[in-house]
Amino acid sequence: MERIIFYCLAIAIIVFAIASVTSRKMLRSVVYLSFVLISIAGIFFLVDYNFLAAIQLTVYAGGIVVLIIFSVLLVHHIEMELEMARASKKILTAIACLIGLGVFLTAIYSYDFNVAGNSLTTTTSDIGNGLLNYGAGGFILPFEVISVLLLAAMIGSIVIAKGKKLTEKNNPAP
Q: Tell me, what DSSP letter sits at residue 135?
């Protein structure tokens, strides 16, 4: 049953990722992206990485997607149509993706994965101490990076939503 659920989630990720990239409507693209992120969290839940799945849902699916949606809605461009890339850029992107896939598969298949010997359970207090630790193995820096990522997502979504209005103000028509 787990294998069937995994394949369903994997198909959902692929389908919604392609739909997110190829959709011309901004709001639909963001909604498809949220489905991709939620499906990724589903895979994390499936392999029993509950903490990572919760972070995936709150930071990415909850934070970034909501910021993008609100930014788009605030500037009243809900039906904004995105420009489609030229065929040459699509081909170049496909080649880059295939090269990346080749590097990824080479790295995965060349590494000898060993089963971990210890089976220590992690408590909530261990996670809290790790999150607040400034030393080696601490997670203060990743949380700061996430805050910068959320800020960049907000600024990027406002720039995308404003679109041509920014360039029209800088270059007024004669």
A: S
Q: How far apart are CA 62 and CA 67, in angstroms?
A: 9
Residue 116 has what pLDDT?
64
Q: Which residue has the higher pLDDT, 76 or 108?
A: 108
Give phi and psi for 150, each to the nearest 5.
-65, -40
Of the chain, the percentage scoring pLDDT greater than 90 comes to: 18
Is residue 105 helix, strand or coil? helix
pLDDT digits (tens, 9 = 90+) for 128-162: 777 777 777 677 777 777 778 878 877 877 777 67
Higher pLDDT, 106 or 164: 106
Cα separation, 131 vs 103, in Å, equals: 32
Cα separation, 21 vs 5, whole angstroms: 24
Beta-bridged to residue 81, according to DSSP, are: 25
CA distance 144 to 142: 5
